[in-house]
Amino acid sequence: MNSAPETLQSVFDRTFADIGKAREAFAPQLTPRESGTVTSVSTGVAHVSGLPGVGFEELLKFPRGIFGIAFNVDEDDIGVVLLGDYTKLQAGDAVERTGRIMDVAVGDTLLGRVINPLGQPLDGKGPIAETARLPIERTAAAIMDRAPITVPLQTGLKVVDALIPIGQGQRELILGDRRTGKTAIALDTILNQRGRDILCVYCAIGQRASAVAKLVANLQEQGAMDYTVVVVTEGNDPPGLAYIAPYAATSIAEHFMEAGRDVLIVYDDLTHHARAYRELSLLLRRPPGREAFPGDIFYIHSRLLERATHLSQERGGGSLTALPIIETEAQNISAYIPTNLISITDGQIYLSPSLFELGVLPAVDVAKSVSRVGGKAQRAVYRAVAGDLKLAYAQFEELESFSRFGARLDDDTRKTIEHGKRIRSCLQQPEFAPVPVSAQITVLLALMAELFDTVPLEKMKDAEDAAQEAAAKIPAEVSARFDTTDKLSDEDRKAIIDIARQALAPFQPTPESPPEAKAKPADEK
Predict the structure, then answer these.
(1) Closest by CA position to 427, among listed 222, 164, 153
(2) What is the spatial distance between Cα 431 and Cα 414, in angstroms, rounded to a whole number?
(3) CA 275 – CA 386 distance, rounded (Å)
(4) Residue 192 pLDDT > 50, yes or no?
(5) What is the pLDDT of residue 23?
(6) Is the pLDDT of residue 324 over 90?
(7) Which residues pair with 104 in a beta bridge?
(8) What is the C-alpha separation between 57 and 307, in angstroms, rounded?
(9) Are the CB atoms for 325 and 175 separated by under 8 Å?
(10) What is the mean pLDDT of residues 102-110?
């Protein structure tokens, strides 16, 4: 027999009783929350009072979605570096603690994206799905967690791979005056990593928006954005964003490194980073030092670049290779910031404006460039020719300067100069045209065998192209040894030189047009 239907009054009484029980069981949990007040706002910084428990570099939340980092923590005043549009703030605005330090989204979802240091997309492709977050300030790997640098990072640039080699996990500084091709070297290095299972992070610090847009377009056109993350701060962004940009980019790269991947990171450039930090320090009334930079300017770059390393196999075996870029003024590499970074890094690639004006591209000054680690990671096949090549090039540069005085030159000197001109011609390379290892080895061995010395200078470009194309004829068992630590045998070298000799045969001069090496000196004409 069915029971009588429940009346509306009984439902109401039961619901009211349940609410009463829930109200009696509820115990409010009160959590203290510190709230401060903005006392003043200036360009990129703010002063806050009323947050006695705030910690150094803690993230603070301002109205209208603006964040800041506590930089100066005094008893009655907190100097805050703002990470957003400071014009939206005013004195009297409330400030809240977040209880955490600045962090950034990391993971594979960032590949192919253009973001700012806060992790916000700038490419119009929609929001980024976050998988994890890491603090932007992290301790560098301990010494015992590091492994020796033994694997080369191929840039595709003949002058770098042969004479100034870079190893995976190395920190190689690129410096030179403005508009000498610093970014072009970094960009070519990124393009050469296609198909090599090496991820890239490009960090643009205070760059023009048009320059960044052009670089991203080049990366997309060359198919490099598939394995690249671009972190951007533009010239009109607050100095706080420029300051945190390289640290955020490094945390993104470290996530891949700790997963066992090999990563390349480019900081373009740390001159703007140093200037942004100087601006913030002066606004926060920190005591200035040399060139008005604060006393810890060396530390902000050393703690950044020390995070680049090659991890041991116990830590996954990943590597982070750093290519910081510095802009010099009037070729002064002994200025404050360049000397700081030269002492921190493991070598430098110096770009000469004189070579750039002469059309020698890339304008690498071999005499002032050095790699303190890459030689140990360089392939044995490169080491077999690099030492003699660098010596011959250095002798040529010295003799070329001497010959400009119109002195009488003997046959050996003229031969050295003509040989050096061929070396310089072969080391030139257009942008976006990385050269594979086999083609580089063919050209370098042909240079050392003096096969190019009888080729007229006006035909050098075509002759070099022919030698590079002939590299495809190298036997597979020989080219397989290019990627190992094995040295080339005399038979292997002879086989490659014979291939190059056949390719260069059409470019040899006819008896009616003797080579330049036989031309008379100027004083005998």
Answers:
(1) 164
(2) 31
(3) 38
(4) yes
(5) 79
(6) yes
(7) 134
(8) 19
(9) yes
(10) 95
Q: What is the pLDDT of residues 439-471, one digit of tens each?
A: 999 999 999 899 999 999 999 999 999 999 999
Instruction: Give the chain's largest Cα–Cα span.
Output: 132
Q: Cα-flanking dihedrals φ and ψ of residue 120, to 5°?
A: -85, 135
Pick 274 or 387 by higher pLDDT.
274
Tokens at 130, concatenated: 């976050």
Beta strand 228-234 pairing with 198-207: parallel
Measure Cα distances from 100 to 54, 68, 347 in Å: 10, 12, 36
The answer to whether 37 and 95 have CB atoms below 8 angstroms apart is: yes
Cα gap 214→210, rounded to integer Å: 6
Task: Judge contact between 164 and 374, C-beta under 8 A.
Answer: yes
CA 108, 228, 133, 87 dihedral sign is: negative
Radius of gyration of the chain (CA): 30
The alpha-helical segments, DSSP class H, found in 174-238 are 182-191, 209-221
Residues taking part in catalysis: 372
The token duo for 387 is 């030492």
Tens-place pLDDT, residues 335-380: 999 999 999 999 999 999 999 999 999 999 999 999 999 888 888 8
* pTM, to two decimals: 0.89
Shortest CA distance to 291 belongs to which of 275, 269, 270, 267? 275
What pLDDT is recorded for position 510? 66
CB 483 within 8 A of CB 379: yes
Residue among 99, 62, 64, 65 nearest 80 (CA) = 62
Residue 179 predicted with pLDDT over 80 = yes
Helix or strand or coil: residue 73? strand
AA identity, residue 277: Y
